[in-house]
Amino acid sequence: MDWVLLIEQLLNGFQFGVLLFLIAAGLTLTFGIMDFVNLAHGSLYMIGAFFCATVTLWSESFLLGVVLALPAVLLVGMLIEATALRTLYARHHLDHVLATFGLILFFNELVQVIWPLDGLRVPFPARLDGTVPLFLGIEYSAYRLMIIGAGLLVAAGLWFVVARTRMGMLVRAGASNRVMVGALGVNIKLLFTFVFGLGAALAGLAGMLILPILGANSGMGEQIIILAFVVVVVGGIGSIRGAFVAALIAGLIDTLGRSFLDVLLLAVLPANAAEAAGPALSSMLIYIFMAVVLFFRPQGLFPPSR
């Protein structure tokens, strides 16, 4: 066993899990707390990447790109909620799916009209374009470590806002009984618009952080939104803590499976069969994990208590 490779892949899995959490946290707010199924959440992840890439290429500063793109995605999310989605809250989930699927098509075509068809690429920030010595002679990407640190800070801040502030209390109360909260004088429409915008900003932040690694491309949100829904369901719909734990587990399972499953299969299968079965099985591991969790805990790992 190459222990250096194993530790590096563990860190890669942790980094992927943190990115999954940023996307899943926004879904948790809109799906779990507001009871709205937003398939277009991945499009906001894509929009965040394109906004950040545009500002970064213009200013030659990735930090400025993030600082300016983050509130822009927040405003885009709030605008979408106020103009296209607000009237759908009382409708069936199928209506949510149809409406937000239409938004996916709209945003995919929009970015192809505004930006180059082959997407945008930005370089790694100069100060993070290198490796950091850790332990046992291991050196790891400074940029990926930054993603992990930023994601953990956002996770702590989001948990504090939802669980320990008046805003979080109003959000949870509005999700439980929006009519009663509105009768007590709370502007429930404005509150939900802000929550939707916050979820959009979290998805956009994930797109910004992955930008130097994968670039910004039309349709990039569709590749990760299904995994984000898996994380929300496994963690417990509406649970920030559950989304965090499930995202880290899913990130580790996906990364380690793609790195080592074909090697493990060599112990029981011929080389050709192991090489063919490894990638297919590794892509299924997260869904197998979801099925096992839901079999024993149908409400997820940490169902929210209301």
CATH topology: ABC transporter involved in vitamin B12 uptake, BtuC
- The gross shape turns out to be globular
For the largest beta sheet, what order do the strands appear in spatially? 1-2
Class by helix and strand content? mainly alpha
Strand content: under 5%
CATH class: Mainly Alpha
Distance between the termini: 46 Å
In the predicted model, the low-confidence regions spanning at least 5 consecutive residues are none
Integer average pLDDT: 86
The number of E-state strands comes to 2
Number of continuous helical runs: 11
Q: How many structural domains?
A: 1
* CATH A-level architecture: Orthogonal Bundle
Order of helices and strands: HHHHEEHHHHHHH
Helix content: over 70%
Radius of gyration: 20 Å
Largest sheet: 2 strands, antiparallel
Could you characterize what this model shows?
With 306 residues, the chain is an all-alpha fold. The protein contains 11 helices and 2 strands. It has helices spanning 3-33, 41-59, 62-85, 93-114, 142-164, 166-176, 178-183, 188-214, 222-235, 240-265, 271-296; strands spanning 131-133, 139-141. α10 (240-265) runs antiparallel to α11. The chain is globular.
